[in-house]
Specification:
2 copies of one chain form a homodimer.
Chain A (H helix, E strand, L loop, with lengths): L1 E4 L2 E8 L9 E2 L11 H10 L9 E8 L12 E8 L11 E5 L10 H18 L11 E2 H12 L5 H10 L3 E8 L9 E6 L20
Parallel strand pairs in A: 1-5
Antiparallel strand pairs in A: 1-2, 2-3, 2-6, 4-5, 7-9, 8-9
Helix pairs in contact in A: 3-4
The first copy, chain A, binds a DNA duplex (30 and 30 nucleotides) through helix 4.
Chain lengths: 214, 214
DNA sequence: TAGGTTTTCGCCTCAGAGTTGAAAACCTCG
DNA sequence: CGAGGTTTTCAACTCTGAGGCGAAAACCTA
């Protein structure tokens, strides 16, 4: 479960209350029950931590089957990537907290690799899908969106370029409204929204590159 | 398991000898045993059909968990995509055969969707990885490679452009040899090989597009 | 009203994909 | 052995889209 908070990409972690790895941070999850879909199971276990309706996007990452991934017994796990839009701040139990992905604590099992794989998946999909809808609030200005992209990608992004690229692809659209400038003034920013609240793949690829050198 | 044979992308199918779906075509596979890796299991079950050493690339696709995917009982399956280079023609048991992906027979379970998902994964990765190494023989000319790409992508590919793109990215390299022209003549073609026999992601994206109109 | 701030927009540059045509290097047949 | 056919290769051009820059727009505060 990833979200951009305070301008950084953060992951929802849970402090284990059971062996193995008692007391170390880990990804939320649990066992699959017979007759259940993987996604149903994920949502169910997630519901114990956050309000699941806040989860704007959920997608399967990978199924891990290394016999040594659990020190005690042979176990299979399917990892999912979930995204929560910026701005929502769900109630959390005491054993659960957000941690910046760039400075993760020690994690149980292979959860560190899973988290980093999730970040990579997100970064890649920002380039050729509309997945940003799951990171952004319903309404936003280009500057706000630029900050979200920059936080997720890990490098600066040009607002000019971002706007042009996303508009041409029809990923975002202007609402027509403008937002009053904050204190200190400045031209009021146009308000945009994502065209679709579901994952769609753009026909054109096209990476959002980091700014050239210097 | 996909391979390009006779200029078309084909899938290895197995005629089921057990219920359910007795007698219909399906993807090769089998049950996972305790302590086993998913990939180990796949290779083991595949070995019953083909020589596994022929498989140049194997990657996980997706884990299916829909309770209705097996009409009898709740079952989880993890699908893999395997690639066999053009040219090798492994011995096959009588109940196993290659079928063009563009004209699949009726398939058991959700195997049709899995097969098409595999084709999509292959097509996407041809654009930003060196995955072609798993489709091509060790040595090849640009024209041969163009035909492979065209078969996998489903549209024509320009040999000129393909060569330039793959060379600049360092994905393929000239061996220095040339191949004698076939009957009917023509300039002898330069022989190339893939630089690495392992999957590598190119830093630059960049789609190989179908030729413009006409 | 002057000066500061943020957003927006037009224009330019640059790189890489796609196109085209001609030269190169072979064959075969009369 | 030369003419004509075939396939490959290469250089030059076009086109599209990403990235960069600076000026104008539209607000604020003092």
């Amino acid at each position: 479960m990833l979200q951009i908070r305070d301008g950084t990409l953060q992951a929802l972690l849970w402090k284990r209350a059971r062996e193995p790895f008692l007391g170390t941070w880990s990804l939320p999850g649990g066992y699959l029950e017979p007759g259940e879909t993987l996604e149903q199971s994920i949502r169910k276990h997630l519901a114990a931590k956050v309000d699941v309706r806040e989860v704007a996007h959920l997608e399967q990452l990978e199924t891990l089957s290394d016999p040594d991934r659990d020190p005690r017994e042979w176990q299979i796990a399917t990892a999912y990537l979930g995204l929560v839009p910026t701005g929502v701040d769900p109630e959390l139990p005491a054993d659960t907290a957000w941690h910046p992905v760039s400075a993760l604590p020690e994690l149980a099992f292979d959860h560190r690799e899973i988290t980093l794989a999730g970040r990579e998946r997100l970064r890649a999909k920002l380039s050729y899908t509309n997945i940003g809808f799951a990171l952004a609030p319903a309404q936003f200005t280009i500057s706000e969106l630029r900050d979200l992209y920059a936080a997720a990608l890990g490098h600066d992004v040009s607002a000019t370029n971002l706007q042009r690229v996303l508009l041409r692809r029809g990923v975002i659209e202007a609402t027509g409204e403008r937002r009053a400038p904050g204190r200190g003034g400045g031209r009021p920013a146009a308000v945009f929204r994502f065209h679709s609240p579901r994952l769609e793949v753009t026909d054109e690829f096209a990476v959002l590159r980091p700014p050239s050198n210097k």
